[in-house]
Write a structure and sequence with these properties.
Layout: H1 12-40, H2 44-55, E1 60-62, H3 63-69, H4 74-86, E2 90-94, E3 102-106, H5 108-130, H6 135-152
Antiparallel strand pairs: 1-3, 2-3
Helix pairs in contact: 1-5, 2-5, 3-4
Length: about 170
């Protein structure tokens, strides 16, 4: 029987990089959430749901696909969509192609809300993420993120050389 192998401990530089990344992963979503709550009265996750629906064909996605794209669980998404539905921003209906699924559709009022919230959100993303970086660093950040995502989920190719979705959502 082999003895347990000693872990590959982080060296000092790797430890500093990891601690910086870990802090960023915690604080950036909180900062984006605070801006959206203050300026638009919605959470970052709610905004993500509205934005994803605004970019979908016919502004409609299956709830299961929306949960995957929003990086949230189906129960969490269901709670958020219920709140958005109460506000008149999203409508849920059975999928006519397969009644086992539920479709989420962004309403005109939901599109207006996403369109209203987008400029402030983009401004905050720019201020917190891109303004402190050079163009070269921005490209490096994209490649670093892709490499990390490939290590996490080698089958997820959503970020591979795709044109970015339109921003901000356009009103009809």
């Amino acid at each position: 029987m082999d003895a347990p192998q000693e872990p590959r401990w982080l060296d000092a530089e790797e430890r500093q990089a990891w601690l910086t990344l870990a802090k960023t992963l915690t604080r950036l979503p909180a900062a984006l959430d605070a801006q959206l709550r203050r300026d638009a009265g919605i959470s970052h996750f709610e905004y993500q749901v509205l934005a994803l629906l605004s970019e979908a064909p016919a502004r409609t996605l299956r709830m299961s696909e929306l949960a995957t794209l929003a990086e949230g669980s189906l129960p969490r998404l269901s709670q958020v969509v219920a709140r958005l539905e109460q506000r008149g921003w999203v409508r849920r209906t059975p999928d006519p192609a397969d009644g086992r699924y539920t479709l989420a559709t962004l309403t005109d009022q939901g599109l207006a809300k996403a369109t209203e919230a987008a400029p402030g959100h983009v401004q905050e993303v720019r201020r917190l993420v891109f303004d402190p970086l050079t163009k070269t660093q921005s490209r490096q950040l994209r490649e670093i993120g892709r490499r990390i995502m490939r290590a996490i989920d080698p089958d997820d190719h959503r970020l591979d050389d795709q044109p970015p979705p339109p921003m901000p959502p356009q009103a009809p």
